[in-house]
Amino acid sequence: MERKWLNRILGKEKIPSTVAFDEIDSWLEVASKSLFHGLSTNADQLYEEISKIRERLEQHTSELHDAEPDENMPPQIAKIGLSNRDKMVKHLYSLTEKMLIPAQTDYKTVLSFYEKTTSSINFVFDKSSRTIYYVRSLFPEEVKEVITDLKQLKTALDQLITPMKGKESQIMNLERASELAVDIKEVKSRIEKEKENVCALEAECSALERRIEMEGERLHAIEEQEEWTRFKELETELFSMKEELNALESDVSKLFSPINKALNLLKKQDETGRRTLTPETQRAISSILSSPIQALGKDINGFLLSIRDIIEEDASSLKERKRDTTLKWIDHLLHSELSSIKGKHEGLQSRIEEVMGKLASMTILKEREELEKSIVSAKGQLSRLQGEVARTKRHVFSLEEELIEKKGLLSEVLEGIAGKKIDVEFDLLTIHE
C-alpha cells in the first residue's frame, strides 16, 4: 500500500501536503526527488565523465612518476624536485584511490561524494602548492596534464551539484527532519517505558494498600478478642501495682530519713577511726542508708537496736539534741508496723512477678506487635513507591512536553522543505491531555 502511494507521488513529482508520521521517511524521499529534479540524470552522466577524468589522472600521475629530469638540471634543484615529485604523486594516487564513483544518485550520496572529492582536490592545490611549484620546475608538461585533469575534475564536480545550488536550506532541513523523526520516536519510546513503569509501581502501591487494609482488619480483630481484653486488664493491673510499689518504697525511704544524718555521722566516725563499730552494726548502718526497703527484708529490728545501743552507750557520739531526736525516732521505728510494710512489699513484688509471668505467656501481644511492625513497614514502602510514582509522572510530563516541542519543530522543518504548510498526522504518538 505504501509503495503504491510512493510510486504515485513519484510519478507526479509533487510534495504531498499531508503525511502520517510513520511514513515520514517516504515523504522525505519524495520531497528530495521533487526538490532535486534532474539530479539523478545529471549525476549518471557526470559520474561517467568523472570516471574518465579519474582514469586520465591516474595515467598522467603514472607518467609523472616515471618521468626523468633534464640532464642539465642542477643537482640540488633536481633533488628538491624529485623529493617533492614523490610527495605529489603520493597525494594524487591517494586522491584517485579514494574517488569511488557511487552507484546511487540521491542527494545525500551526491553531496557526500562531492564534499569528500573536493576536499581531496583542494588539499592537492592548497596544501601542496609549494610542492607543485618544485615539481613543475622539473616536469612542466607532466604537471600541466595533471593540473588540467584536476581542474576538469573540479568543474565536473561543480556541475554535479548544480541541481542543488541555492537549496542549501532545504538540504539542511532534510537532514534535520530525519534527525527529528528519530528523536521523536526515541522520546515516544521513553514515554511508553516510563508509563509502563508507572503502571507497575501503581500496581505495587495497590497491593501494599490492600495488605495494609487486611492487616489493619486483623489488628482490629485481635483487639476484639477476649484474650486481648484480659491482656489489657493484666497490663493495667501491673502498672497500678508498680505505681503502688514505688509509692511504698518512697514512703519507707521517708520513714527512715530522719535518722540518716546520724547514721552517716556514725559511719564516718568509724571510717576515720574515731569510733570502732562492730561488723554487725556496720552492716546495719550500710543497709539502712543504701536501701531502707531492702533492710526491711532483714532483721531490721535487730539493726535498729544495735544502733540505738551505740548511741546510748556513747553520749559523745552525737550532740545531745540530735542524739535525743535520733533515739526517739529509732523507738518510733521499733514500734512501727515495719513487719506489715515488709509483708505488703513482698506481696506486691510477688503479684507483680505473677502478672508479668502471665503476660509473658500470652502470645497475643507478639501477634499484635508483629502486625503493627508489618503495617509500619508496608506504609513506609507505600510512601516510597508513591514518591517514585510522582517523580516518574513528572518525568513523563516533561518528556511529553519535549515531544510536543519536537513535533512543532518537525512541522516547521517540513514546511521549510516543501515551501508550504504540511500537516503531520501524529495519531500514533502519545501526548498528555
Chain-averaged pLDDT: 81
Q: Name the poorly predicted regions.
A: 1-12, 429-433
Give the SSE string: HEHHHHHHHHHHHHHHHE
- How is the main sheet built? 2 strands, parallel
Strand fraction? under 5%
Instruction: For the largest sheet, list the strands in their spatial order.
Output: 1-2
- Count of strand segments: 2
Evaluate the radius of gyration.
Answer: 54 Å
Shape: elongated
Termini separation: 32 Å
Helix content: over 70%
Helical segment count: 16
By helix and strand content, what is the structural category?
A: mainly alpha
Description:
The protein is an all-alpha fold and 433 residues long. Helix content is 81%, strand content 1%. It contains 16 helices and 2 strands. Strands 1-2 form a two-stranded parallel sheet. Helix 2 packs antiparallel against helix 8, helix 9 runs antiparallel to helix 15 and helix 11 crosses helix 13. The longest helix is centred in the middle third of the chain and has 57 residues. The protein is elongated and about 150 Å long.
State the gist of this model.
Helices cover 81% and strands 1% of the residues.
For this entry, give a set of tags.
single chain, 433 residues, mainly alpha, 1% strand, disordered N terminus
Topology:
Blueprint: H1 2-12, E1 18-20, H2 24-35, H3 39-66, H4 75-98, H5 107-127, H6 129-138, H7 140-160, H8 168-224, H9 226-256, H10 260-272, H11 279-290, H12 292-295, H13 300-313, H14 320-334, H15 338-361, H16 364-418, E2 423-425
Parallel strand pairs: 1-2
